[in-house]
Amino acid sequence: MAKEGADMTEETQYMIDRNAGKEGVIVESPSNAKEMRAVVLAGFGGLNKLRVTKKAMPEPQNGEVKIRVKACGLNFLDLMVRQGNIDNPPKTPLVPGFECCGIVESVGENTHGFEIGDRVMAFMNYNAWAEVVCTPVDFVYKMPDEMMFAEAAAFSLNFVAAYMMLFEVAKLREGMSVLVHSAGGAVGQAVAQLCSTVPNITVFGIASCFKHASIKDSVTHLFDRNTDYIQEIKKISPDGVDIVLDCLCGENTGKSLSLLKPLGTYILYGASNMVTGETRSFFSFAKSWWQVEKVNPIKLYEENKVIAGFSLLNLLFKQGGYNLVKSVMNKLLSLYEQKKIRPLVDSLWALEEVKEAMQRIHDRGNIGKLILDVEKSPTPLMANDSTETSEAGEEEEEPEGDNDSKERMPFIH
Ligand SMILES: NC(=O)c1ccc[n+]([C@@H]2O[C@H](COP(=O)([O-])OP(=O)(O)OC[C@H]3O[C@@H](n4cnc5c(N)ncnc54)[C@H](OP(=O)(O)O)[C@@H]3O)[C@@H](O)[C@H]2O)c1
């Protein structure tokens, strides 16, 4: 059975405690500042396309709040954006990032429900990785008093996506079984915690071996991603599972479908397998595409299987689903206040350390969520590290494939 509660690692607790002194509602920003720092992606490609630059200070429009950002979430999707490995990529240069939290600094005209000084978290359609953001109130939520900024930045995207897949799409109920890939990641841990809020759920988790000691209590059965997990799961549950959450795509799609029980639901919500090297690989893209089992509705009818897809960002920003998301967020905040869920934070990074943070996800090193802490000073640079604040330019180029980021300390201690 999935274990109760949401224990944090000592490391997470330490990092959050360390940041506790920074919490508060004092808005210190110089109201006349004309510029702010932001991470900019100069073009699609490798880590060398990222830099921190000064940008014009945004001002809130009708129905928007201006937020002095404290922390931002770094997601696997941000790697895919950096590589240009997404549908309809926007034009570069751009400021990446889909979620952040901070303190409301001012509000635009006709903006209701928020006041200066409110501690908030927000979804952004890009532009989150900056000292200041402006966004419509439809995508903004008040933080519970006891929630730290590092937690808030780790909360929105992962928990809302996990909740909607489990409860809105797959209708998770008592006694069901769930298979989740990347179980040690940010979404994976949100899935595991939410499953523990329903009685008698069996969670099959797949993750890299070195994470097992840290996350074994969060799932019922844990398998190394390099083992034949289909056979292992069938040994325990010969009929298969009720829900498969697949963020890998490619060869895992067919395997996952073969594990579904009659009336079971398979949800595709990511394509991590498409990321192989530092830059986009057409070969990996094509391989994933070809390996996806072609869906035949007649076969689904015969086998009684449900296939679904889920994209929170499309739901929010392209399909007008923000009211539904708001109601889900209210339920999640209530679970947080009842101490039934709590985001697992892997590590905190300065904006200037964004390359190292991304490298950590590439290297499969994270257990839980990576956070960009806007007030954190970067770890001192070693000689020849060129991660820097640039006032000059978003179009600056560096040679492809530089590995300067590896000169920094990989962890925050
Ligand atoms: N559709 C949506 O609304 C939505 C929302 C949020 C996230 N997602 C998707 O959910 C997945 C997880 O996202 P997340 O932000 O929580 O990230 P995450 O799980 O924290 O991501 C990192 C982990 O993914 C695993 N992984 C699998 N393939 C990988 C690869 N090719 N390169 C590096 N790591 C790989 C690694 O864990 P192991 O080595 O342990 O497997 C790694 O530690 C992603 O596919 C993301 O796009 C979708």
TrEMBL record:
Ranges of Acidic residues composition bias in the record: 391-402
Transmembrane parts of this sequence: none
SMART domains registered for this protein in UniProt: PKS_ER
All copies of domain Enoyl reductase (ER), residue ranges: 45-372
Keywords: Oxidoreductase
Biased composition (Basic and acidic residues): 403-413
InterPro entries reported in the protein's UniProt record: ADH-like_N (IPR013154), ER (IPR020843), GroES-like_sf (IPR011032), NAD(P)-bd_dom_sf (IPR036291), SV-ATPase_mito-regulator (IPR052100)
Gene3D superfamilies per the UniProt record, alphabetical: Medium-chain alcohol dehydrogenases, catalytic domain (3.90.180.10), NAD(P)-binding Rossmann-like Domain (3.40.50.720)
Renumbered residue ranges of the record's region Disordered: 378-413
UniProt cross-references to PANTHER family, sorted A to Z: SYNAPTIC VESICLE MEMBRANE PROTEIN VAT-1 HOMOLOG-LIKE
Listed name of the protein: Type I Polyketide synthase
Origin species: Ilyodon furcidens
Gene behind this protein: VAT1L
